Amino acid sequence: MAKEDDLGSDASDLSPDSGSDQDFFNRDRHLCYLQMMLGVLPTYYQVEDINRITLAYFAVSGLGVLGGLHLVDKEMVINWVLSLQAHVKDETELESGQFYGFHGSKSSQFGSSNSEGPILNGSHLASTYCALAILRTVGYDLSLIDSTPILKSMRSLQQPDGSFMPIHIGAERDLRFVYCAAAICSILENWDGMDREKAKEYISNCQSYDGGFGLVPGSESHGGATFCAIASLRLMGLIEDDLFTKNATPNFIDVPLLLEWTLQRQGRDGGFHGRLNKPSDTCYAFWVGGVLKILGAQKLIHKKSLRKFLLTCQTEYGGFSKTPEMLPDLYHSFYGLCAFSLLEETGLPSICVELGITNR
Ligand code: FPP
Ligand code: ZN
């Protein structure tokens, strides 16, 4: 009888018809799933129409992680993404406090139907991050983007405490949007869009007593928020990569405590969860595994059991579900694939963890 370690080592085991969906990483089915999602979305994604660019980011960037960008009509994608950029009619509009980035879809490009409605420009920090991530993934020359309005108007989204709002009015402000702002500046290679010192102060204030980070100061530690904190610091050049192995501990966050909290997120079933007492969930293999990778501590992950857990979330339709034996969704499929790249699955390109895209 084959040892568990030997399973899948014979090339004949890799044919799609042999074994169950959970025996091997089924690259071909993931390619089919993402290609299909890039063409037509199932009806239940209707409610996400406003976030269409985020869904496109999962599909395009996911195809990148699978080494399948030849399946993407790059010109069509580029033209569509560029059509979502918000433009100013004249320079004085940049002083209005509104943000001129990218819209999530055409539906937010039309002004409010209420003539007294306050929001005439629905561009959003998360949509802007996704737009730029897509453009970079498909090889668009980003120097062609009119980035001055994006960066200039982004500054007015930063709050006195260093956090960011994603739009100019009435929204939450937390670490997610600090991360989006840092990723935007990093992709555009221009940090005029934010005050990094202020952002650093805010991030440091979000570290909790247990070592993890909450979305806002004083809130419960969470894997997603912890990723946003550490990836932002790395993008801003405020922490070194591999600081665990280099022993290069910064003085404004507690790295040993962070490491302890992060490692405790791997459960007995091998998967990662986002916060205490929650079940393992595919996406946290990336959010939390990504933090360990940035810190240079990925060798402390129990890789074999994580891979096994992730395979229980790989579905017969291609893609990944949140928890075992559920239906796939684009969000968990994308982050599941990123996790396989972090686990150095044979044939997968490496990813730039802090930007959530394949390395150039
Ligand atoms: C809790 O949802 C979710 C959060 C507190 C947000 C976490 C942040 C991220 C996932 C990062 C976002 C990244 C970008 C690029 C903006 P939940 O209660 O449904 O999740 P849980 O039960 O798994 O904790
Ligand atoms: Zn999840």
Structure notes:
With 360 residues, this protein is mainly alpha-helical. It has helices at 27-39, 52-65, 74-82, 125-137, 148-154, 175-188, 196-205, 223-235, 243-246, 255-263, 282-295, 303-312, 330-342, and strands spanning 351-352, 357-358. It has a single domain (27-108, 120-358), classed as Glycosyltransferase. It is 40% helix and 1% strand. Strand 1 (351-352) and strand 2 (357-358) form a beta hairpin. Helix 1 (27-39) packs antiparallel against helix 2, helix 4 (125-137) packs parallel to helix 6 (175-188) and helix 6 (175-188) packs parallel to helix 8 (223-235). It is globular and about 60 Å long. Zinc ion is lined by residues 281-283, 322, 332.
List segments where confidence is low: pLDDT < 50 over at least 5 consecutive residues.
1-18
Anisotropy-based shape: globular
Q: Give the strand content.
A: under 5%
Q: Going across the biggest sheet, name each strand in turn.
A: 1-2
The small-molecule ligands in this entry are: farnesyl diphosphate, zinc ion
CATH class: Mainly Alpha
Average pLDDT figure: 91
Gyration radius, in Å: 21 Å
Euclidean distance between termini CA atoms: 43 Å
Quickly count the helices. 13
Structural classification: mainly alpha
Quick rundown:
With 360 residues, the chain is an all-alpha fold. It is 40% helix and 1% strand. It has a two-stranded antiparallel ribbon with strand order 1-2.
Give me the secondary-structure topology.
Elements: H1 27-39, H2 52-65, H3 74-82, H4 125-137, H5 148-154, H6 175-188, H7 196-205, H8 223-235, H9 243-246, H10 255-263, H11 282-295, H12 303-312, H13 330-342, E1 351-352, E2 357-358
Antiparallel strand pairs: 1-2
Helix pairs in contact: 1-2, 2-4, 2-13, 4-6, 6-8, 8-11, 11-13
This protein binds farnesyl diphosphate (FPP) and zinc ion (ZN).
